[in-house]
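Exercise 7 asks you to align residues with tokens for two separate proteins.
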Amino acid sequence: MNLAYIPSPSTGVIHLGPIPLRGYAFCIIIGVFVAVWLGNKRWIARGGKPGTVADIAVWAVPFGLVGGRLYHVITDYQLYFGEGRNWVDAFKIWEGGLGIWGAIALGAVGAWIGCRLRGIPLPAWADALAPGIALAQACGRWGNWFNQELYGRATDLPWAVEISDGPNRVAGTYHPTFLYESLWCLGVAALVIWADRRFKLGHGRAFALYVAAYCVGRGWIEYMRVDEAHHILGVRLNVWTSIVVFILAVVYLVLSAKLRPGREEVVEPDRGPAASDPATKDEADGETKDEPKDGAAEAKDSGDGESEPKTDAEAASAEATEDAGTADAEAPKTAKKL
């Protein structure tokens, strides 16, 4: 008899009047806010502007949710399209089922679109958000606890999670793999923050470190799970995915460090009025160019003596001077004739 264990909620939904509050969705929402909050702080520290991370997250989060759901439905299609299944359930995201691999892949597409619109390099944005994504996963994994899913093998350890009878599950105490992954993600976030401060990671290397570190933990945690999954050569599909993605992340780390060492000096271009508004820019340039031109015109007008009318005295003086000059010029000619 197991005297110590982690109890599971009797239900994953709390009704606030007619409004259902689902624990799974609540955990995901908390994770998104944490990721954006930390990403914004790191982005500002890198020289970016406040609010940019949230603006790009508006693109990344919806794409990520769709990608995560697509990956889950495709890799576990038998849950929705098998005999006796209802394909409409594939759209019931609140019942659980998001694949992190699809969420990151399609979320990156959304982030790329947002970065392009803002003129921001995607790798720099990903570096700022990397530890926040790990924290978001740490929060989101508790949604599996609310739904009593993704647990491991049976165990009588004091930290085992209690699972009740239900569809596709048998009552008992099991390894809380959701808790293992949540704690692992906290460690990954701490590792990325430390390494980024210590080595000044840039050009997407902080994000690659997050991916590689997460894959290491996901591999051994996935191996402990007992939920239904596809196998290749006797190994769960997500274990193979972890291995492949880990190798790609490490290769990127090595090649990026050689080809683009150091960190980006500018992560967000200046988008002030002088830089973005052509009319303002032309006005500023016109003032700079017109000023010497007006000065030169004034000097020319003064030199030609045609800008102001002359008085009678000044005219007489100028005429006498001109006559004297004419007389001096004709004097040599008269002497020569004599």
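Second protein for Exercise 7:
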Amino acid sequence: MIYTVTLNPSVDYIVEVEEFTLGGLNRMKRDMKLPGGKGINVSRVLKQLGVENTATGFLGGFTGGYIEQWLRQEMIASDFVHIADDTRINIKLKAGEETEINGAGPEISLPETASLLHKLDALKQGDVVILSGSTPPSLGGDFYSRLIAVCKQKGSEFVIDTTGQALKDALPLGPLLVKPNHHELAELFGAQISTRAEIITYGRKLLEAGARHVLVSMAGEGALFISEQGVYHAAAPAGQVKNSVGAGDSMIAGFVGTLSLTGDVLEAFRAGVASGSATAFSDDLADRQKIEQLRPLVVISQL
């Protein structure tokens, strides 16, 4: 089984206006409310790919109920800890360019924290746990390390998609996959990275630190896949970019889901790039039809 863990999910409230006037009255041209959170995005794209998974983490209040209802409608299994505080709302204001206002996240109590750790006691050898996104401040900076310790104890694989110290702490524990973009990679090492060769150099440092597979997304320049098997580049398929949210999560879903079905890392890379691109070309996350249309257009070359 694949599990996704979203510690700080959200309802993403997307508002589009013709022109935004600060301090004045603005009327919506269009709005959408979508379940948000990196792990939840991964679960939704895994389901599109036909890969069964279970979404877990923390949900609370009317916003948490909205997310659970959406997952039920998409027939995605969920096993969240229900908390007393409300799941946050993130606002994405589109007026020519996009402005984001993200909530900090709910207060998580000690009993609620213990409940999530208890749920992970059900993990088995061969399971994959995808840890994605930010951590509510009330959980502290080491909570991902605590979750990874449970994964290791149970013999489960883990994927981590976060930044900064939490990612550095996870690397020696052998994540199945890490997926920084080139900006996050530069920030991680405190370096200036401007060329593909530099991305490869620092991507290999992630391998040396303990990661088994590394994906580096480079927006319109495609993506790099770095593993002990070699270094590969995939050009991004052509298309009109509509959506900046969830492409990286979709890439993780495409890679991990296809790897679980086929065991072929290059096919997993191809599916990851196709899934990320399909989301970038959609108003919401990618659907199966769009992913399958793009998959044969992803050309992979060994470097």
